[in-house]
Design brief:
mainly alpha; globular; about 90 residues; about 0% strand
Length: about 90
């Protein structure tokens, strides 16, 4: 396990994919539309996030499984991996 992935234990692959989808979509929309105001930027960000949200909903309907884990960054102790042999 790499240092980067050690902190991602407990996070499902689909969570990472959905996050990446939102980020890539928002970035590409921003490049195409070149928003100039904060409101225009918010609109682009919302649309990128909405695509990921809609994809999440469809994924959950198709698989019958939740796309998001119950772990989150505010519960850091559960996210961190204990090194074997070190305490």
């Amino acid at each position: 396990m790499t240092r980067h992935t050690e902190h991602l234990c407990g996070v499902q692959d689909i969570e990472l994919v959905l996050n990446m989808l939102a980020e890539v979509t928002t970035t590409n929309l921003s490049r195409v539309e070149q928003p100039e105001t904060i409101e225009q930027n918010k609109s682009v960000a919302r649309r990128g996030g909405n695509l990921a949200k809609n994809t999440r909903t469809e994924y959950e309907q198709l698989t019958g499984q939740p796309a998001l884990s119950s772990l989150n960054a505010s519960n850091k102790e559960l996210l961190e991996v204990k090194k074997q042999g070190k305490q």
